[in-house]
Write the structure tokens for this entry.
Amino acid sequence: MNDFIQIIDGTIQVLEDLKRSGVTHVDVSSKTVEELGKPPVAAAIPSAGPNSPLGTAAATIADPTAELAAIEARAKVCVKCNELSRCRTNVVFGTGNPRAEIMFVGEGPGHDEDIQGLPFVGRSGELLTKIIAAMGFRREEVYIANVVKCRPPENRKPQPDEIANCLPYLLSQIELIQPKVLVALGATAVQGLLDVQLGITKMRGHWYTFRDIPIMPTFHPAYLLRNPLAKKEVWEDMKAVLEKLGREVPKSR
């Protein structure tokens, strides 16, 4: 309960700072307001260090929905990246099952995502949804997020400082959801999570570890739209993910 109150107090502080700086309107979805109105879930949550927006990491929580909603509320008023916060239409926080076995992490929102406020809803999103279905999951059964939550202008690659500013939100999502496997979609996601500069071509298909969670780097769906032949390699990566989860490859694919 005390942790939840601290989160709300932190959100209020951010809003008060914005008000003093002249901001008069902040878009918050009705879903977020509804979730924030729910009672907090009782849970023992150990410290996660100073970089987390939560200020805490998650222990095993029955339902982290309220905690995720509180972090989303902070993300929606975040102005750490001047350029991104000024040009965004919506903060694209994440979507899916808060207790997902698989969490997909991409680079950042594109035009369609910025308009709708949801990750992977454009052409890349359609392809990702097909990949998820081929694995035997529904989209709502997994969790999907990005390294940065605001669309970079002209869909450029996020700058290192923008990744650093936004990464604590993603880390808190991972801490709360506690997926059994992370799938890093593209080089930016890999670099953000693993802090390495190797190309995605060299890293894909090989297992790495992020905070004791197995992570599989693979090509971003946008890359597959430009290079359809690489779909075979991504499918091999997804079969490895299914094997890691102890699941059989669907025969109806």
About this structure: The chain is about 45% helix and 10% strand. The chain has a mean pLDDT of 83.
